[in-house]
Amino acid sequence: MTDISLGPRGLTIEQQKEIAIIQSQASNEPYKPKITTQTSLYVGELAPHIDEAMLKEHFGNVKSVQVCRDSVTNQSLGYAHINFYTPQDCSAAFENLNHSKIDGTTYRLMISERETTKRVSGAGNIILKNLHPNVDNKSLYDTFSRWGNVISCRVFNKLTGGSVKGYGFVNYDTYAAAERAISFVNGKMLFGKEVHASHQVLKNEKESLLSHNDQQHCRFTNVYVKNLSSDVTEDDLGELFSTIGPVSSVLVQRDDQHKPKGFGFVNFELPEDAERAVNELHDKDFFAEDVTDEILINNFLPYGTITSAKIMKDESTGAPKGFGFVCFSSSDEANRAVAEMNGRFISSKPIYVALAQLL
């Protein structure tokens, strides 16, 4: 296999440009870097204390800055919108500052796309699997911007069973750019691991490829999740639903201002896991906000020896996410806990309990 280096770790800017030229010559539709026609950027994954003044100082000469805040508490929701005077300034900020840091926290930029059909069509979306733990958002962007204009990209690293399973998403502005990236990356070695790259096929596109009979026998893998709180992220959904089975992609739907709409989608690798998620999680409540690690241990202790117990919390705010994990010393103890505790009440709320799936 051919080994390709990621971003600044192995290639200079000049070398990356040389590679882009060579690749464009081999492509039927050459890669042509272009300046966006938009003048607004979405800034995500901001630390709670980042305010408008800090953003203005960081981004320089901008027209306006708005940190989105909770209407009741006025606390930052972790994202903002920045308006530039010209598309050139917007494009330059996106290219040069994406995945940089403000006060020690790495943020993520997206071009605010006003064309709804382009934003939600998914034609330029690709999925990457088997990524090395060293691959981060910055190196992913540096690498995949060689083959087209990247609207957004993100890496998800999940620690399970002592190993890290990495996957990611890259959203290009055109299908041709996504096709070009897949042709060069799929099967290649990144940091010693063979990467699998493919198009993210949307549900309606999958159905159009199936005959009527095939559709009747097709089992779904995509699960629709609604009634989500405004602070739920893709990481939260992925972490929760991966207790059912391996998850291939997660999406929290957002509006034109990138505010969560309260629903999302979780795509499983196996249809039986998707069916199980619907059957077992539908209309289920999770832990009340006052449930602590100690309360969790006290409730599950009668069923065996607990090696660890943890209520999952938001890293930036410390707020409980509504679910947690209890590890027993044996599978028999875990099975007994599931049988006895599922549907029981903790702090006035019925809880859902299931065996966690190691990916």
Automatic annotation (TrEMBL):
Keyword annotations: Repeat, RNA-binding
Xref: Gene3D superfamilies: 3.30.70.330
SMART domains for this protein: RRM
Native source organism of the sequence: Rhizopus delemar (strain RA 99-880 / ATCC MYA-4621 / FGSC 9543 / NRRL 43880) (Mucormycosis agent)
GO molecular function terms listed in the Swiss-Prot or TrEMBL record: RNA binding
Tree of life domain: Eukaryota
Name the record gives this protein: RRM domain-containing protein
Residue ranges of domain RRM in the record: 39-114, 124-202, 221-302, 293-358
PROSITE patterns found in the cross-reference section: RRM
